[in-house]
Design brief:
The chain is α/β, with parallel strands linked by helices and about 325 residues long. It has two domains: about 210 residues, Vaccinia Virus protein VP39 (Rossmann fold); about 70 residues, no CATH class. It contains nine helices and eleven strands. Strand 1, helix 1 and strand 2 form a beta-alpha-beta unit. The radius of gyration is 20 Å and the shape is globular. The two termini are about 40 Å apart.
């Protein structure tokens, strides 16, 4: 029987370890039995903070080599579905990585899973991509639920909207029992003084100031966001951190870039998280990671459902997946 004291989980596409930190915050005795990430900087960061080096390319790892586990976590690559990426979905090899999650679920049958991706996944290809994902998960016998959450609603001063998909091997009385929090002010996230290395050039600062001269800028700290069209918006919070954004995509008060530690704070990482990679690598990793308070809110709902199983006769599990399910759209 699954209890709070013996939870074993796998951490696919583990990145900086946001899922790992979230479940450890809720259940200190939970244990990661397998992690993987293709990126060497992610592997080094994970090892420095959790004492284990993730395996590499999941497509090259047979499901038989993955240990038995209770919960599967996967913030699978989002660039294939992102509005800021090419949006090619399953036509992109990063999009097909979802089916590696599916083959592991089929083989290992964990009690539950939590997946995370950009909100555009829900509407991609007129909703057909997301429907295919849900169909695959349900054909595997999992009761699924999904919801788009914004990090702004869970205490972080970052507008980051992501879809979370949760699934249960057995029927559960699941409800989104979300514990929302007031937004943390930027003054508690941003450092008062940083190295001059983080400051933009005078030309860029002048251009930013010229772009917002007719806009109302509130007193205090703001983060100036430049969208794909080149429009600048000074906001009392950060827009979503992005792995492939330009260096000047987000500027504090239109003057300087975020530091590595500030990026981690915007995702809810603790102050003792060790930074062992360079600035460019951290920008990429921080842009790809999960917002920890959002994951914690989801996990509270998941474990509440797991503690109260449905007493009715269990549905028969569909374990056979047609080969066509794994073909590209």
């Amino acid at each position: 029987m699954l209890t709070k004291e013996n939870i074993k989980f796998v951490d696919l596409f583990s990145g900086l370890g946001g899922f790992h930190l979230a479940i450890r915050e809720i259940y200190a005795n939970s244990r990661c039995v397998f992690s993987c990430d293709f990126d060497s900087d992610a592997q080094n960061s994970y090892e420095a903070n959790f004492g284990e080096k993730p395996f590499g390319d999941i497509t090259q790892i047979p499901e038989s080599q993955i240990p038995e586990h209770d919960i599967l976590f996967a913030g699978f690559p989002c660039q294939a579905f992102s509005i800021c990426g090419d949006g090619r979905g399953f036509e992109d090899t990063r999009g097909t990585l979802f089916f590696d999650i599916a083959r592991i679920l089929q083989a290992k049958r964990p009690t539950a899973f939590v997946l995370e991706n950009v909100k555009q996944l829900v509407s991609h290809n007129e909703g057909k991509t997301f429907a295919r994902i849900i169909e695959t998960l349900e054909t595997l016998g999992y009761q699924t639920h999904h919801k788009i959450l914004n990090a702004l609603d869970f205490g972080l001063p970052q507008k980051r909207e992501r879809v979370f998909i949760v699934g249960f091997r057995e029927p559960r009385n699941f409800a989104w029992d979300l514990r929302k929090k007031l937004m943390q002010p930027l003054s508690e996230v941003l450092d008062a003084e940083v190295s001059t290395n983080y400051y933009a050039s005078e030309k860029i600062k002048e251009n930013r100031l010229r772009s917002v001269e007719n806009k109302l800028i509130k007193d205090g700290l703001t983060i100036w966001h430049e969208n794909k069209g080149g429009n600048i918006s000074p906001l009392p919070y950060s827009c979503a951190l992005r792995s492939g954004a330009s260096y000047n995509y987000l500027l504090v008060n239109g003057e300087r870039r975020l530091t590595e530690r500030e990026m981690l704070r915007l995702q809810g990482f603790p102050e003792d998280y060790k930074i062992v990679v360079g600035y460019q690598a951290m920008r990429k990793l921080a842009g790809n990671t999960v917002a920890i308070p959002c994951v914690e809110a989801v996990l509270h709902s998941v474990f509440k459902a797991l503690e109260k199983p449905i007493a009715a006769e269990k549905s028969k599990t569909k374990v056979a997946v047609q080969e066509s399910l794994f073909a590209q759209i």
